[in-house]
Amino acid sequence: MKCVQVRNMSNGRFSHLLRGVWLLWQAVFVAGTGSKLWEVPTASFTSSSNLSESLQDCEYRHLQDRVSITADIPPRLDGTWVSTRCEVRPGPEFITRSYNFHPSRHFTALQHYYTDSSCEAPAYSLMIRGKLRLRQASWITRGGTEAEHHLSKVGIVVHSLAAKQRLSSRLPSSCVGLTLSRVMPGKLYELYNTRAGRGCLSALGFSMMEVGLIRVETQHHSHGGKIQELFLGDIHTDWTQRTEYRPTGYQQPLQNAMHHLHPCPVCALVYRSSEHHPPVLPRSPAASLSLAGRWVSQRCETRPNVLFLTRDFTLNPDQHAWEGIYRHYSDPACSQPTFTLRASGHYAQGNPSAKVSGATEFVFKVTEVRITAMEGQTAKLLNGTRPGRCGLAGCWEIGVEQDLTPTDGCNLLGLKLPHKEYELFKPELDHRKHPLLFTGERPTDGTSPDRPQRRPTSFQAPMVLCSGFPRHYGSVFNNKQVQLATSGTGRLVQLVLLVLGSVLCSRFCVY
Ligand SMILES: *[C@@H]1O[C@H](CO)[C@@H](O)[C@H](O)[C@H]1NC(C)=O
Ligand SMILES: *[C@@H]1O[C@H](CO)[C@@H](O)[C@H](O)[C@H]1NC(C)=O
User: How many CA atoms does the CB half-sphere of 340 hold within 13 Å?
Assistant: First the structure.
């Protein structure tokens, strides 16, 4: 049946529709998470998942070893958790972490900061002591547990005179036990204690807000091994927000020192480090890798603001063409699909990044977007849009793909085609020398990196390369002027965008 009717559905104001969306989604999420949302979970329950369907037809051999993933709520944190690579935070900042949680609820966290993106040149280390209290299952980020922390002490060791110089442009001249002019490399100084204000910590852009959202995943491999990962809250991409931001997504996980990937030379170095002996990571082999091919998520990914998805991304450098398939889910195991978004267009490779060495700048253009509603609520929501604004109104059905290109995107979702994004990509090899692709982190506020100044400085979880090339590859290119929909004015619009829209309007492109 061909669905071509154009009907006037202009009863009800736009804001009502938006409000409806918000309430609807709120209802969906609440219904989906059970009734104990606001209580501290007492019994631990386990959610389990298999690898997402995006991998099923991807011939990525290492993942064919069946892995089931469990995540306890509340999470068990005891032990030491370490970085598995040089981590890049927005800024950019280059960091390795080693966090130790004690049964007494005390924690000690070591953070080592570097001047370079390979973590070869340590600048300074922070020794953080505090106490953590798990609160309740997160209402916003399903599968996560909220926690409160109390910092008791932060110490700093500066590792070189050059690092001291750089700190002097950020830190006040004196902080608790530290007077910058008298700082000697290699010596521990107190930067914060409970009697002091947080001024000096903020000046460094430091906070431990990341422990406000916690998830521990255990991967059970069919051969009997297990890997445990600790996901802590994400760091806001806007520097001015980061010390106050309550995380709703995660950073790249730390791995348990006892149960980690093998081999993991970085884990061992980080595990053995101290504030006086920061880990100096080996230079990662310069990955002059080709980006050509199909890249997929390694797991169900969690995004700030209630989003769970897997990415399936293909680059064709010969034609400068790309296609991304983003499968969205309502649960952290990626087992309940909500909708699938397929976007495509072309791209241009730019210069090597001056901020993150080893990374390259890109510009992506989205010219086509298709959406498939995978469940009733989403289908209904899209079905109710006004004719000509978001695909064929009244034609949305579960499992039927709609092309949004003829309507230049989707007005309800603040999505305007064509659309341009400024990106940062970094290829790397994993511990088994298999290619990984890091793509830029999306702005935490749900906007899109549509200007060069908004280009990411940090990365999302890496995707892995599938062998083989896509079977279908048809992209219609057009050269319409790029335009970005400025998404509404009201708070309501923002809420909607937070819940659903941001998925589409800001994450829909390259992700
Ligand atoms: C995971 O895969 C196994 C084996 O195919 C299956 O028995 C199990 O039900 C799956 N679990 C989920 C949560 O899909
Ligand atoms: C979409 O709208 C049409 C026309 O109003 C209706 O017949 C159809 O059942 C709706 N579909 C869904 C999934 O709501």
Answer: 20
